[in-house]
Automatic annotation (TrEMBL):
Belongs to the cysteine dioxygenase family. GO terms for molecular function: ferrous iron binding; oxidoreductase activity, acting on single donors with incorporation of molecular oxygen, incorporation of two atoms of oxygen. InterPro entries: CDO_1 (IPR010300), RmlC-like_jellyroll (IPR014710), RmlC_Cupin_sf (IPR011051). The lineage of its organism: Bacteria, Bacillati, Actinomycetota, Actinomycetes, Pseudonocardiales. It holds the Pfam family CDO_I. Residues 187-211 are annotated as: Disordered. Fe cation binds at residues 76, 78, 127. This is Cysteine dioxygenase. Keywords: Dioxygenase, Iron, Metal-binding, Oxidoreductase. PANTHER family: CYSTEINE DIOXYGENASE, CYSTEINE DIOXYGENASE TYPE 1.
Length: 211
């Protein structure tokens, strides 16, 4: 019997089309240690992190991520999903982006997420994470519903890509993972337009709001 997977399964059973607040509460209660996750951690290899899906239903998916040192993933959204991210071990750098009326991202906030904290990823939020240190970092991700059609951004080349469900938050290396490639209208370094910009509040449950 696997105590961790049993506990996660029981958690997911209690969630039927969970709201953001219901998912946050469930994650706060479940409590997962790095020792429990260690058998499921995949090596990052050439990527920013190794990913291992622990559980998936129609309502929720749970993914463990083992971060490479001093490496950052690409800016990305989570399709039509929202999520809760638990920093199980280490320190995570976290960049957040606005989207202007042309859906082009511009970074507006950088912060650090500490070990033992959970933070909310609202539906529509564009962000990037990484392990800025030379010590291990492990995160556990809970998404509702399971992520599909995630969009990954290459701001240097002014492109975005809708990726297949088995791709992480990096530009796909396999052609089959590139479901759609989109040209962005503003180069990195340009100032975002403020009128109508969509800003997702990372500190509370909710959808994108106009500011």
């Amino acid at each position: 019997m696997n105590e961790l997977l049993d506990r996660l399964t029981d958690m997911v059973k209690s969630l039927e089309r969970p709201t953001p607040s219901e998912l946050i509460t469930a994650v706060d209660r479940v409590g997962v240690t790095v020792a429990e996750l260690r058998p499921y951690l995949s090596e990052p290899g050439l990527y920013p992190y190794g990913r291992q899906k622990l559980l998936a239903t129609d309502e929720v998916e749970i993914i463990a991520m083992n971060w490479a040192t001093q490496r950052q993933c690409s800016p990305h959204d989570h399709g039509s999903s929202f999520g809760v991210i638990s920093v199980v071990q280490g320190t995570i750098s976290h960049d957040l982006y606005t989207l202007d009326q042309d859906d082009t991202p511009a970074k507006y906030l950088s912060r650090v997420e500490k070990e033992g904290t959970n933070y909310f990823a609202a539906r529509g939020m564009v962000h990037s994470m990484g392990n800025p240190l030379t010590t291990p970092a492990v995160t556990l991700h809970f998404y509702a519903p399971p992520i599909t059609r995630m969009k990954v951004y290459d701001l240097e080349n002014c492109l975005a890509c809708v990726v297949s469900d088995d791709c992480g938050a990096w530009w796909p290396t396999e052609q089959r993972q590139r479901l759609a490639v989109l040209k962005l209208t503003r180069k990195t370094g340009d100032q975002p337009r403020t009128t109508g910009s969509r800003v997702v509040d990372p500190g509370r449950p909710g959808d994108p709001v106009l500011r």
